[in-house]
From TrEMBL:
Stated family: Belongs to the sulfatase family.
Highest taxon listed in the record's lineage: Bacteria
Signal sequence interval, chain numbering: 1-21
Entry protein name: Arylsulfatase
Entry-annotated residues carrying 3-oxoalanine (Ser): 75
InterPro entries, alphabetized: Alkaline_phosphatase_core_sf, GAG_Ulvan_Degrading_Sulfatases, Sulfatase_CS, Sulfatase_N
């Protein structure tokens, strides 16, 4: 792609980097939000153990902030301040309230799940970033954690200016890195609403207990690959904005087996 690309990292660092410019050409934008990342978690802020060379390069070529504040100490309302640009007192979302109590259960293999999951919806009267960018002619994708409305609510990705979504509607479920299902909304695949995509290999094993670790469909990798596939499908005629709201490094602190060897000597 020859168009302008901005990479915006949120989680203390890595702010807009202009890689290539054309006058009067709308830039392509990647907005990266790493869940629960702290000030000292990146090498560009002095952390010596985990290598983050690409993020460090973004920080070197762009800007680093050494004093910044989140909108809230917990996930859903903090994300609401980012999406709406409003103070927590005005965003309608005030906490990580779950919407699964009192709903029927469904089964995936021998594992039970709530038939509806998610958090308090964003107020439909409050315009959010994907809607703003959509109005400006952008194609929009969100990959990772949504936490802006429970399944079937007035504020799911399909109703909020998002062309493609893949990840977790529910921020609580996002604490499981080997889940029973992930959520998807893809106009390209003919989806008319958010659906559940079952992790067929994972549901062969229990959701709890030692056999949970026999599950092999690692959500962080799956979500990242879906994001890259979406980016690769974009054309030169339409600008795009991708919101990469990744679950790493938040608990459950699980990692792919192939990465274990990299940190074997770190307590």
């Amino acid at each position: 792609m020859n168009k302008t690309i901005w990479l915006t990292g949120v989680g203390l660092a890595c702010l807009p980097t202009l890689l290539c410019a054309k006058q009067n050409t709308p830039p392509n934008i990647l907005f990266i939000l790493c869940d629960d990342m702290g000030y000292g978690d990146l090498a560009c802020y002095g952390q010596p153990y985990i290598h983050t060379p690409n993020i460090d390069r973004m920080a070197q070529e762009g800007m680093r902030f050494t004093q910044a504040y989140a909108g809230s100490p917990v996930s859903a309302p903090s994300r609401a301040t980012l999406m709406t640009g409003q103070h927590t007192g005005h965003t309608h979302v005030r906490g990580n309230k779950e919407y699964w109590r009192g709903v029927p259960m469904v089964k995936y293999g021998n594992n039970e799940e709530y038939s509806v999951v998610g958090q308090e919806p964003y107020d439909p009267q409050h315009k959010i970033l994907p809607e703003i960018m959509k109005d400006k002619g952008y194609r929009t994708g969100v990959f990772g954690k949504w936490a802006g409305g429970y399944e079937g609510s007035v504020s799911t990705p399909d109703k909020r200016g998002v062309d493609e979504f893949y990840g977790y509607i529910c921020q609580f479920q996002a604490h499981l890195y080997y889940p029973n299902f992930l959520n998807r909304y893809s106009r390209a695949m003919g989806d008319t609403a958010v659906v559940r995509e079952v992790m067929e290999q994972n549901i062969q094993h229990p959701m709890f207990g030692k056999d949970y670790f026999k599950r092999k469909q690692y959500s962080a990798r799956i979500i990242h690959d879906k994001a890259l596939e979406w980016i690769d499908r974009q054309d030169k005629e339409h600008p795009f904005v991708g919101f990469l709201t990744y679950t790493l490094p938040h608990a459950e602190l699980a990692r792919a087996d192939a990465l274990n060897i990299l940190f074997v000597n770190i307590c």
